[in-house]
Amino acid sequence: MQASTPTRPGTGRQPSVRSIAGAAALLGALTLQAQEGGQVHGNFSTDGQLYNDDEQIGATAPPQDFGLNAWGNLNYSQGGFRAGVRFESYEPALLGYPAGARYSGSGIGYRYASYTKDDLEVTVGNFYEQFGQGLVFRSYEERYLGVDNAMDGVRLKFSPDTGIYLKGVIGRQRFGFENGFTKGDGLVRGIDGEVSLTEAFPRAFPKWVEKGRNLTLGGSFVSKFQADNDPLLDLPENVGAWGARANYTTARWNLYTEYAYKINDPNGSNGNIYNNGQALLANVTYSTKGLGVSAGAHSYDNMVYRSDRAAAPFDLNINYLPTLAKQHTYNLPATLYPYATQPNGEVSYQGEVFYKFKKGTPLGGKYGTKLAVNWCGAWSLDTTRVMNDTVHYLGYRTKFFRQGDRQYFSDLNVELRKKVSADWELALTYINLVYDIATVQGKPGQSVIYADMVILEGLHNFTDRNSLRFEVQHLSTKQDHGNWATALAELTFSPHWFVAAMDQYNYGGSVETEKIHYPIGTVGYIRGGSRFSFSYGRQRAGIFCVGGVCRVVPAANGLTASITTTF
User: Fold this and answer.
1) Contact criterion met (CB below 8 Å) for 551 and 544
2) pLDDT surpassing 70 at residue 27
3) Which of 84, 228, 302, 422 sits at a 20 to 30 Å CA gap from 501?
4) Sorting pLDDT into bands at 50, 70 and 90, what band is 546?
5) DSSP label at residue 447
6) Is the pLDDT of residue 19 over 50?
7) What percentage of the chain exceeds 90 in pLDDT?
8) Helix (H, G, I), strand (E, B), or coil: what is residue 25?
């Protein structure tokens, strides 16, 4: 998992001057229509940063010492008709943003029109869509990672009868942004169908309807086309993938499984081998009053699937491979050693138990006590390399879902949360971590990290409007940069103001390292749907992840301003 530069350009700048003019005409039409009974809504956000040099943390101000990311969405709806545009500006983009292809300039980054009638929905232009959990197709945006593989084409949704849902998509993916979005070379086509048995056939399952049970079955097929221009290899121009899924639910149980298969797809990530790929995931959850239990497992083998076989790891991904790792919100575990899915091959397991001790019991006390225990781990696949294979170019052989010897990741965390009085609430968290930084962050030769973390969080309500939240975090390890400590305090004056101060301290412990503080202060103001915040201080180099997808964040020192608003 590393941020990379693109390996080839898109098919050109989109939209052109003509389409920008068309978007302006559309905005004018939407304004007139809104005056006749339609609804217009949208949002705006901007993040700007002024950079300073800071030799101690390795931060160097760029020639343009100010970076800006800004987005504005405008949407219109009336009856079954919807349309919208998104204007984006990167003048220039913040350092380290986005994860993949370069973003620069200002222009239209997204535009669409959609109409629904008689259970048929037609969308032209840009759209996001997902089949199942995304193992064969997911078009989505994660703005603060800089991931955006929006489709540009046509999408159809149709429900021929109650409980039956059909989808069809065709188009090209957003690749980057250069005064407007650019598109990748490959063409993506896909269909998906889903049937809910108790919705579609209630008379056939009367007891299920009565007891709140249901079984939903679904299937997908996706194909991408890209011309073969390789002078040496005979590359498949049409690469298909199919998936099947089932979801069984009751009042307390939820069981979900999905399987995907992809034909041979030689690409830059798998070393141009001709192995097929496959993926299987399964999740089960049980919940009742005061108790929740979940377990999951998955195996991914050679499941890199991009509309451009030469694209960088973050660009033009057709599918999405969810991680089972817990998504931490505390600073140290979330940014130092987060886990990123290994699409070329991994086996992973996860289990979690949540229990609430009742009020009035010895462990529950006056207000009750919440306990959550979570464990997750990921390993390599058990593979055997195929030597001197000059005919099939398979690269390796493996038995699906068989765990290999190399452990990529393990996270055992225990959280105890308790309200101790009418004004105080405390949470204590312990995390034990195993982290193969050489594989996950692409740092060959570095030792596996074994770390322990302890986090204390507190919330004190002075009044109904004023509160203080604090965190004290400590990470202990004998690898990498050694020990870290973090302290955070956030004071809120509802409904408008908040101030916060945080300091991260890398003091090494048993590891020799330069002892560095990373202080930062923030002040913010909220009014209605608008939020303003200003921060000044140091940002250490690290990793920012969402859902198993990560990007590198460089070290920085300076002033950051953020404004968001909705209407």
Assistant:
1) yes
2) no
3) 422
4) confident
5) P
6) no
7) 72
8) helix
pLDDT surpasses 80 at 548: no
- Whole-angstrom Cα Rg for the chain: 25
- What pTM was computed for the model? 0.88
Would you say residue 2 has pLDDT above 50? Answer: no
Q: How far is it, in rounded angstroms, from Cα 488 to Cα 494?
A: 19
3-state secondary structure labels for all residues of 424-469: EEEEEEEEEEEECHHHHCCCCCCCCEEEEEEEEEEEEECCCCEEEE
Alpha carbon distance 106, 71 (integer Å): 10
Q: Which two tokens stand for residue 531?
A: 């939020």
Determine the residue type at 380: S
DSSP 406-423: EEEEEEEEEEEEEE-SSS
In the chain, what are the domains?
A: 1-42+63-289+296-317 (2.40.160), 323-547 (no CATH)
The single-letter code of the amino acid at 400 is: F
Q: Name the β-bridge partners of 469.
A: 459, 490
Map tokens 């798998």 to a residue: 270
Q: What are the pLDDT digits (tens) for 212-242?
A: 999 999 999 999 999 998 888 889 999 999 9
Cα(49)–Cα(46) distance, rounded to whole angstroms? 10
